[in-house]
Amino acid sequence: MSNSILDLIGNTPLVKTETLVKNPKVKLFLKLEGQNPGGSVKDRAAYNMIKSALDRGDITRDTQLIEATSGNTGIALAMIAGIFKLNIELVMPENSTIERVQTMRAFGAKVTLTSAGNGIEGSRDYVEDKVKSGKFFMFNQFGNEDNWKAHYKSTGPEIWEDTQHQISHFVSSMGTTGTIMGTSTFLKEKNPAIQIVGVQPTDDSRIPGIRKWPQAYLPKIFNPQKVDRVMEVSEEEARDMTKRLAKEEGIFAGMSSGGATAAAVRLCEELEEGIVVSIVCDRGDRYLSSNLFD
């Protein structure tokens, strides 16, 4: 029995793939972050950012919160802000799936849509202009230390224990980079030989949740020294693997998870032996109105 829905954030399942890896000496485990109550890995960072800001006195119930998001962080912030009775405005591109917009509104958030042509960068610019007025507080997930520290405190330790300290490679999509920064920091402290692999889209690909940021928008929490290797995936690879996950593994996820898994499978094919863990960051139901599963 849990006293609060917040107690259900973290401790997500780690599941061995059944069909994707052929070498019996290489095992690929997927961490199912869609099992968080808000449906994604972003519950961890959102909770840590809000709770830490409240504990420090950076915000109160009277503070007007605002944040740019491409989807999952916004849903998590909306859910947790509602629990703490905080007012939040979430800003995202107008081509975001309706499921994401409606979920944020269901949790009580105000949602503002910016031009699709300007992407998430345009949403970030809009929020920063609002913050300059002095009437808003922005968590700034792209530069907030509490983002990656959430994964240092939870995601990394969970993976370390669930693999009985045997993990050899960790694979994660890179968006805000909080997941890979925090998990890498923890795992490298336990065993510096663990290889950390970040996943980015190829130059001509659009994969929601994975970005290759222009230098001006590169997340300030990102430290390239904490990533041993970057693998690129195409939109086609990500789409195909997302469908395979559902059909072959029974794992219903979004395209960024398919991209990370595609990279992880390619990595497994290179290895003679190893234990690889990859992040499945959310659920597929928030992409049903897109053409992902057509």
UniProtKB/TrEMBL annotation:
GO molecular function per UniProt: cysteine synthase activity
CC cofactor: pyridoxal 5'-phosphate
Pathway: Amino-acid biosynthesis; L-cysteine biosynthesis; L-cysteine from L-serine: step 2/2
SUPFAM superfamilies, per the entry: Tryptophan synthase beta subunit-like PLP-dependent enzymes (SSF53686)
All copies of domain Tryptophan synthase beta chain-like PALP, residue ranges: 6-282
InterPro entries noted in UniProt: Cys_synth (IPR005856), Cys_Synth/Cystath_Beta-Synth (IPR050214), CysM (IPR005858), P-phosphate_BS (IPR001216), TrpB-like_PALP (IPR001926), TrpB-like_PALP_sf (IPR036052)
Protein family per UniProt: Belongs to the cysteine synthase/cystathionine beta-synthase family.
Matching PANTHER family: CYSTATHIONINE BETA-SYNTHASE (PTHR10314)
Protein name (record): Cysteine synthase
Naturally occurring in which organism (per UniProt): Gillisia lutea
